[in-house]
Automatic annotation (TrEMBL):
Signal sequence extent: none
GO biological process, alphabetically ordered: respiratory electron transport chain; tricarboxylic acid cycle
Protein name: Succinate dehydrogenase / fumarate reductase iron-sulfur subunit
Gene3D superfamilies: 3.10.20.30, Alpha-helical ferredoxin
KW Oxidoreductase (keyword) present: yes
Record's keyword terms, sorted: 2Fe-2S, 4Fe-4S, Iron, Iron-sulfur, Metal-binding, Oxidoreductase
PROSITE patterns cross-referenced by the UniProt entry: 2FE2S_FER_1, 2FE2S_FER_2
Enzyme Commission number(s): 1.3.5.1, 1.3.5.4
Species of origin: Kribbella italica
InterPro entries membership: 2Fe-2S_ferredoxin-like_sf (IPR036010), 2Fe-2S_ferredoxin-type (IPR001041), 2Fe2S_fd_BS (IPR006058), 4Fe4S_Fe-S-bd (IPR017896), Beta-grasp_dom_sf (IPR012675), Helical_ferredxn (IPR009051), SDH/FRD_Iron-Sulfur (IPR050573), Succ_DH/fum_Rdtase_Fe-S (IPR004489)
Amino acid sequence: MTYKGKFRVWRGDGEGGELQDYEVDVNEGEVVLDVIHRLQATQTPDLAVRWNCKAGKCGSCSAEINGKPKLMCMCRMNTFEEGETVTVTPMRTFPVIRDLVTDVSFNYTKAREIPSFTPPADLKPGEYRMQQVDVERSQEFRKCIECFLCQDTCHVIRDHEENKESFSGPRFLMRIAELDMHPLDAADRQHEAQDQHGLGFCNITKCCTEVCPEHIKITDNALIPMKERVADRKYDPIVWLGNKIRRR
Ligand code: SF4
Ligand code: F3S
Ligand code: FES
C-alpha cells in the first residue's frame, strides 16, 4: 500500500536555512531513510544526507525526527499516522554542513584526547591475563556504533556551546569508564574523567541512555559507576591523607 506522506525537511547550510514541505510516496515497510532517498531521487537531487549501511550499524544517518534524535534507517514509517507531518532536521548539537549533514569532528577531537589502553610496563604482549567476567563487563560498551546521538541529546553541550571545551560527552566518558574497568589498564582514568573530560558536568539525566540505538545503559553501567569510583577515591580517608602528605 502506498500513500502520499507529508515531510518537512530542514534545508540550508552553516549560514542558515529553513524547513521545507514536501509530499512524497511512502510504501509499506519503509523507514524514514527510504523516503528521504525517494525525495532525493524524485524532487530534490541536491538534498544532502549521510548514510551508509541502512541497517543501524554504521552510525551515519543520525538526525532528529519530530525533534527526537534517531537513526533515519531504523525509524519505521508505520510509527506515524498517514496524515502526520514527519519533520526531519539535522543533529542540533553539531554545526551544519548542509541540509541533514552535520560536522561531527568535535567527537573525533574528544576521542583523540583519551590515551589508549595502557598495560603495566612489566608485562609484554602475550603475558596479559584477565578473568572472563572482566571481559564480559565491557562488552556492552563495545556495541557502540558511534552514531553520536547520545552526544547530540546531552543537554550539557546541546544547550551550551561553551561547555564543549571541557565536557567530552557520554560516548567518551563511557570509553574512559570502559578503560577504567579493565584490570590491566594502568593509566589514571579517574582523574582524567573528572579533570579533563568533565565527568562532574553530568547530572545523570539519562537522556543519553534513552536515545542510544544499541540500548547501551550508558548512565547506569558506565557513568554512575565511574562517578562512584571518583567519589570513593576523593573521600577515602587513606587516599585523602596520602594526597595531603604528597602535597607538603
Ligand atoms: Fe550512539 Fe549509543 Fe554509541 Fe552513543 S553510546 S554513540 S548513542 S551507539
Ligand atoms: Fe548527559 Fe547522559 Fe549525563 S544525557 S547529563 S551524559 S546521563
Ligand atoms: Fe548506517 Fe543508518 S545508514 S546506521
